[in-house]
Amino acid sequence: MTDTTSSAGARAEALAPLMREAVREAAGFALPLFERGGQTRARVWSKAGGSPVTEADVAVDTFLKVRLSELEPGAAWLSEETIDDPVRLGAERVWIVDPIDGTRAFLSGHPDWSIAVALLWAGQPVLGAVFAPATGHYYEALAGRGATLNGAPITVSDRSALEAARVTGPKPMQERLLAGAARLGPRPTVTTVERVPSLALRLARVAEGVIDLGLVSKDSRDWDLAAADLILREAGGVVCDLDGEPAVYNRPEPRHGELIATPRALREPALRALARG
Q1: What is the pLDDT of residues 121-155, one digit of tens each?
Q2: Both 149 and 173 in a single domain?
Q3: pTM
Q4: What DSSP string runs through 182-223?
């Protein structure tokens, strides 16, 4: 273990309970504006490109930027709701935050929205949390220390074949997966799980073992992925592109292509089925 790795791990362990407190406190800005099964009470407007944003997104983002920067003053910042500062590209430590992942779910009263927070150290997530305030599910991971849900350890499923796998994600990718698998052998019978609006939660549920394969369309961003990626890794899974390469964070353009989230044992069957050509 290098000195850098050791110091990162020790710092992440010290920060974990403080981050947990901050994330739960941040949820207090959003949850009162959420109307389960109905339209939000929050003010809503459109960002450039047409994506919705609410006063809850902004309030959570503002709170976390202040609080997390106090906890780790030397860390840079990357968030969906903050103007990007290129200083992050040369920073050893970076907070990566999605104040509300699944804003449309939040708007419409669907409970599957989340707050996602990761601390990147030398390009790798070392601390991550995904909190779903509407359900009370708090996923957390420290690099090398495993992943938990509400404090209890979690692991991915033991699925190693596509047959009978529980799959979620965009329908076009599901269709390609099944068509590709059918070219290699008998077409597998899979269980389609309703798409989880929050991408961070989608990955966390793979980590929890209630979903076997999560498919991710292109154009996801670092803030959608970094925290849940660590949680999944620590639970025995992997996030990778269709060439099998792991997701890379804190690049000048924090955007990703198509990805899969899966137990390690299911990685190769899924990649073979989705192979181009």
Answers
A1: 999 999 999 999 999 999 999 999 999 999 999 99
A2: no
A3: 0.96
A4: HHHSSPPP-EEPPPPSSHHHHHHHHHHTS-SEEEE-TT-BHH
